Amino acid sequence: LPELPEVETIRRDLEIALVGRDILGVEVFFAGSVACPSSEIFATGLVGRRFTGAGRRGKYLLLYLDDHSVLVVHLRMTGRLLLFTEKPCLDKHSHLLFKLSGQATLLYHDVRKFGRFWWLPAQQLEQIKGLAALGPEPLSPAFHFPYLDREAEKRTVTVKALLLDQTFLAGLGNIYTDEILFACGILPGRSARSLSRTERRALFDAIRHVLQEALAWRGTTLSDYRDASGETGLFQNRLNVYGRHKQECPRCSQAVCRSVVAGRGTHYCSHCQH
Ligand SMILES: [Zn+2]
Questions:
Q1: Known catalytic residues?
Q2: C-alpha 185 – ligand 1 centre gap (Å)
């Protein structure tokens, strides 16, 4: 499911494709995809609005409109936002359709139907609880080593659980936490508090490095993720441990291990990580 690098890749594509386009019509095929307002108000009220920008917080996409309102999207597991400049092919998983100026169409496609849209005035974004509670962005100056050091000291949870906690840090999920912990040589089941200062420093650097690499490769596609053009990411070819149970560790050639940590299937090398 999409994590920070995938959502950021979609954001960058949509910013280029959407800004300046007007919404000419909205069709709601599955009302459950709209969390607020009602699907009727959503479908009628958005008509005539123009996209002015695209932002992101954690795994939330923020599409800014010309009346200071924001269309917020969380793709959850299988949501895809696809931009077409020709007539799109709809299927039973097509839940929302936005007809745009310049013959374009923005289609929301979601097999599992867990993704959600909110349309709110910009000053009311904190009504979305998950958005309001997010910790700092890992690639922003708000995330710095003293913050990680202080939070790690306070927490009794495993380091994997800490990284997955969106109130600690926004945007990480199961794939990148495993890759980050491999990159800095720390076992996912260690308690966050047990990390030495050197290990905390290595963790901090790995978080930023792995995310930047994944962004450069336009994210990871294991099954569902597609960018706004319907293309896969490329980082899946560069994963070291995630999804590679029993395959060779690229560093030491021992078999990659898998166990459950923080309630999630977790991949690591018992030789390279301590
Ligand atoms: Zn290894």
A1: 2-3, 59, 264
A2: 9
